[in-house]
Structure formats: C-alpha cells, structure tokens
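Internal ticket - ligand job 363, magnesium ion:
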Amino acid sequence: MEKIYLTGDRPTGRLHIGHYVGSLRRRVELQNAGGYKEMFVFIADAQALTDNIDNPEKVRQNVIEVALDYLACGLDPAKTTIYIQSQIPELCELTFYFMDLVSVSRLQRNPTVKTEIGMRGFKESVPVGFFTYPISQAADITAFKATHVPVGEDQKPMLEQTNEIVRRFNYIYGDTLVEPQILLPDNAACLRLPGTDGKAKMSKSLGNCIYLSDDRKTVEKAVKSMYTDPLHLRVEDPGHLEGNTVFTYLDAFCRTEHFAAYWPEYANLDELKEHYQRGGLGDGKVKKFLTAILQEELEPIRQRRHEFEQDIPAVYDMLKKGCEKARAVAAETLDEVRRAMRIDYFDDAQLIAEQAKRFAAKK
Ligand code: ATP
Ligand code: MG
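stdout (structure tokens):
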C-alpha cells in the first residue's frame, strides 16, 4: 500500500522543541525522503477549541503562528498539504458516525485524556467535546486514509483508539477505512521531551517550553534556569543523569560532531556523562554546551521564519489552497463511508427501483 503520512498540532501556542523532536523533525525528513503518495499536516483548531471555548481569539491568533513554524522547519507546501481542521466539515460528519462505535467507558480509560483532564482542572465539568476528542482524531486520520502518523508518545492511546474504530467500522460495514501505524521517534529522549522545569512533558498549556521561535537570549535564559540534579550541589559532587533535564535534552539534540565544534575536551556524550557522574563537572558548563547546540539547531529555523513573516497574506493563501485540496480528499472518503453505511439514498438507483417494485407488488 502506498504511504500516506498525516499529523496535526493544536494552535494553542507557537511550536516548541518538544514538537520538533517528537514529530516535526521527522515529518520534514519523511517529506524530503520522498517515496510516499501524500503528506498531510493540519492545524487542529477545532480540537483546540474543545478546551479553549472561552478563548477563541487565542486559537485564531495561533493558527498563523503554527503555520509559520511549519514553514520555518522546512515543511514545503509543494510536497505537503497544509490545512486547517475546521475548514473540512466532512471531519465533523465522520466523527458523528464514529461516536456510535465507541463506549463512554472506553473513552474514560484513555490515559492521555485522563492526565489532560487533571491538568486542565475540569473536575466534574469536562466538556463533551474535549472528552470525545480521541474520536474526532480518529476521523482526522481516517478521512485521509493515512497509513503512517509520526507523533510523540502521548498520542499512542489515540492511535490505538483509531485502530479499534477502523476495525469495528470495517467489520460492520465492510472494508472501507485504513488502520494507521504510529511512527514514534527512535530516540527515547524524544518520545516525550520534558519541560524545562523537569516535571511533565513540555507542553504549550504548561508554560515550560522553549519555543522554536524564541530569540537567542530567551533560549540562553531558559537553559540557565533549567532543572538538573538537586543532589549535585558542589562541582566535586557526583552528578546524576536520571531525571536530569539538561542531559535528556542532550540525548535529544547532541551529535558527536558538536563536541569537536563546542567542547573538544570530550570525544562524545558518553565521556561527558561519565565525567558528570564521577563528579568535578559543574552544571553551568554543561548548560553552556547545550545552549550552543540549541542555538545551532534553532538559528536557521528563526531565520526562515523571519523571511516567511514578511508575506503573511501568502501564508494564508497557502493554507486556503491546502484546505481546498484536503477537503476534496475527505469528501471522497465520506462518499465511500456513506455508501458503506447504507445512507447514500439518492446515489443508489437500485434502492429506488427495488422500493418502487416492492410497493408496486402491494397493489
Ligand atoms: P497542548 O498543551 O495544547 O496540548 P502540546 O504542546 O501538547 O499542546 P500538541 O499540539 O498537543 O502540543 O501536540 C502536537 C504533536 O507534538 C503531537 O504529535 C505530540 O505527540 C507532539 N508533542 C507535543 N509535546 C511533545 C513533547 N514534549 N515531546 C515529544 N512530542 C511532543
Ligand atoms: Mg497536547
């Protein structure tokens, strides 16, 4: 089967380095490697509204920010269809049909949604739209017959839910939809990059982010204040790597050539870790090294973003074209879905003829 890639991001803020290592970097690599039929990337504004219903302006303002981050990272509209979720009404229709295939208790077991409900302090008043967003995500994926979804680890339960829906749908209505495969980052540190506070995953909603568009000074400050090892009080103390955010970020971003460029005293990350654990290496030096690596990675992204910011109407135009193309694809799948579900009354000449015959026989 030909590959169809699909992913999305919520326009709840600019994109951060967690998105980058968890999904965005991979998408750009896949896009440029070729060998696929389609690549879809969308801005999940309707999903963002499920927990931002009082703040539509936030969602509206961040659509362009996310689009700029995409372009800055190297997503290319000539190769990737970039679109906005709410502009594809077929997705709502598909969600509505999928709702019959999922039980409330199944949704309640979704660990990511459970954590997110806790984080957002919904308590007893969880919006139905938020609670059911894994179903709408199944529609987002299947409407495009995506075969591969490159995302971070928090999305695993969503992909499992999607595949259950696809299996159930195909079992009841006949083979129509495609089961997607999750593409997780190979590097364990990238599965769920922690925030700079070292507590939870880096997340726009938690304010513990380094954004792709942050300027040099902001990045430097964020790394300086980063959580490390609370037991590593004096330079000579042995340091611990477990839960040490600076080292997790090094695992995610550091390549051997960075040592030759910025810290030739060490040959590779293993040597650096070994010295840190032995004692005698201060956090300040490690943070300086991490800052240099992040600046090297982020500088070209910042520059490209700056260029795209010079022509904002062109970015909206690109999105509009993406929406038109995406809508045509989703509409085709919905035609198939309606046919499979036996709700294509006016397109089925045989149905009308048979009914006419049945009623004629009654006379
Ligand atoms: P929000 O707080 O609004 O949910 P978010 O920061 O979690 O925002 P999403 O838009 O929900 O970002 O996630 C978009 C994509 O980025 C998903 O594929 C998700 O798995 C991935 N992702 C988000 N945060 C991280 C992270 N810290 N580490 C790795 N991948 C991440
Ligand atoms: Mg999220």
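Auto-summary: The radius of gyration is 24 Å. The pocket of magnesium ion (ligand 2) is lined by residues 203 (CB under 6 Å).
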